[in-house]
């Protein structure tokens, strides 16, 4: 006869949140589960009923991703369930969501003449004071990393030529403590105190003379 779904079928559930509360979850399926068994992910906050993660692709048994309808705060508890044949085989709660949030990479990384480095964040509905940054420097002698709690950094080492890129995460104790870093920003190559980004910006600002024929 048909096997009754049980909680040993689902293992290693992992969820990451992006942008306007977009959720991406994956899980491993035990070999004891039937090959054709489908699993459906449901979610809710403390005020709502459980809703199906509607963007789950047909046939993708170990993955679901969707926008969380009715979930408007990154600080609320989120309840998750996975069902097989309408039987709950996994359930948990997540609080706060920011602990599992992946930011977009920083943009507009710029290196000034004094090796002061600045960058910007793609707008997001939490305070920038909640962010922690890591900078990766590559030189002819190798590479090293530095950290910053603000979207700027003053490089004290005297380097004339290097490449730098930046990534970010939610890292302040009163906001959350995500261990998930964003992807790296675009790299900026620096030589003789002036970055390629600055040179491109100066070229764009330079007026092109008008020549009549």
Automatic annotation (TrEMBL):
Q: What molecular function does GO assign, one term? A: cytokine receptor activity
* Record keywords: Glycoprotein, Membrane, Receptor, Signal, Transmembrane, Transmembrane helix
Q: Name one GO cellular component term.
A: external side of plasma membrane
Membrane-topology descriptor: Single-pass type I membrane protein
Q: Respond yes or no to whether keyword Amino-acid biosynthesis is given for this record.
A: no
Q: Where is the Type I cytokine receptor cytokine-binding domain positioned along the sequence?
A: 12-85
Compartments where found = Membrane
Q: Which superkingdom? A: Eukaryota
Pfam families, per database record:
IL6Ra-bind
Protein name as it appears in the record: Interleukin-13 receptor subunit alpha-1-like
Q: Which organism is it from?
A: Callorhinchus milii
Query: Where is the organism placed in the taxonomic lineage, from the top?
Result: Eukaryota, Metazoa, Chordata, Craniata, Vertebrata
């Amino acid at each position: 006869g048909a096997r009754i779904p049980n909680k040993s079928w689902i293992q290693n559930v992992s969820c990451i949140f992006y942008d306007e509360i977009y959720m991406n979850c994956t899980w491993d399926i035990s070999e004891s589960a039937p090959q054709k068994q489908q699993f459906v992910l449901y979610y809710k906050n403390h005020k709502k009923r459980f809703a199906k993660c509607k963007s789950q692709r047909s046939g993708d048994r170990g993955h679901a991703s969707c926008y969380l309808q009715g979930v408007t705060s990154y600080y609320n508890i989120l309840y998750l369930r996975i069902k097989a044949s309408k039987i709950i085989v996994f359930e948990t709660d997540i609080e706060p969501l920011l602990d599992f949030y992946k930011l977009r990479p920083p943009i507009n990384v710029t290196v000034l003449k004094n090796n002061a480095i600045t960058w910007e964040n793609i707008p997001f509905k939490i305070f920038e004071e909640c962010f922690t940054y890591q900078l990766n420097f590559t030189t002819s002698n190798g590479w090293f990393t530095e950290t910053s709690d603000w979207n700027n950094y003053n490089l004290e080492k005297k380097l004339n030529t290097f490449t730098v890129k930046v990534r970010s995460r939610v890292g302040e104790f009163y906001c959350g403590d995500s261990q998930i870093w964003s992807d790296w920003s675009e790299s900026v190559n620096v030589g003789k105190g002036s970055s390629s980004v600055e040179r491109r910006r100066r070229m764009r600002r330079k007026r092109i003379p008008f020549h009549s024929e």
